[in-house]
Amino acid sequence: xxxxxxxxxxxxxxxxxxxxxxxxxxxxxxxxxxxxxxxxxxxxxxxxxxxxxxxxxxxxxxxxxxxxxxxxxxxxxxxxxxxxxxxxxxxxxxxxxxxxxxxxxxxxxxxxxxxxxxxxxxxxxxxxxxxxxxxxxxxxxxxxxxxxxxxxx
Length: 153
Fold this sequence. Notes:
Oligomer: single chain
Number of domains: 2
Strand content: 5-15%
Number of helices: 6
Mean pLDDT: 89
């Protein structure tokens, strides 16, 4: 996150950080951020980021990135929002996860159609155009059949 923030600031962009108090206390807040929003906990952090975002870009990351991605995808699946979710699949980083998502559906543990919740791009320069396209022409909400997938539970 720091490298992305540094690049944005170098390009004269604005960086808004949202950090829970316990991480700020550990001095993990980016000192050059245009705005730093300090919140009480991780749940408030995610809610604040969601409310202040028009779209989401999933970059290569670890467990925290996965947790945040799955929550925002789940909220879209449940029709709590229809904001673009772009997965930047640099050098195929997310390919195994994308294959697993297809397998979950193919095996009947999820309804078909969840692949429409995400837009995948392979190059950083394709992220903004993908977001702009989807903001201008939002995806249809995924309509899931009534009842549970064949292999629920």
